[in-house]
Amino acid sequence: xxxxxxxxxxxxxxxxxxxxxxxxxxxxxxxxxxxxxxxxxxxxxxxxxxxxxxxxxxxxxxxxxxxxxxxxxxxxxxxxxxxxxxxxxxxxxxxxxxxxxxxxxxxxxxxxxxxxxxxxxxxxxxxxxxxxxxxxxxxxxxxxxxxxxxx
Length: 151
Prior knowledge:
Largest sheet: none
Helix content: over 70%
Distance between the termini: 28 Å
Shape: globular
Structural class: mainly alpha
């Protein structure tokens, strides 16, 4: 399988797992993550289903293609490199998508910020799992090892 198809397939698998982690957290924790709704609102709609489609499209196409383009500049190899990449994505995700979480978990924040801590830990964990699947899956599916940048 070529590099682009390997990255897209690995990104699709990673997107499925990160989505599952976020949904299970929302159902079991009692506070809403609202990622999909916030994502759809960015383009002027209020549809969690549309947000889910956009989330999958980004996780399956945008981020994997960026990974194979810029991954050579990141430390590590395979899953480790993917986790570094995903941690960088999380730095934008955490503040960008916490708005719905803050509103839904306001009582938890008033009691010492436990809701914010859960949000940060769960989303970081989910991103690291996504990155491990993206980096490891990319190599496993036949993608070439991302080399060192040419100087």
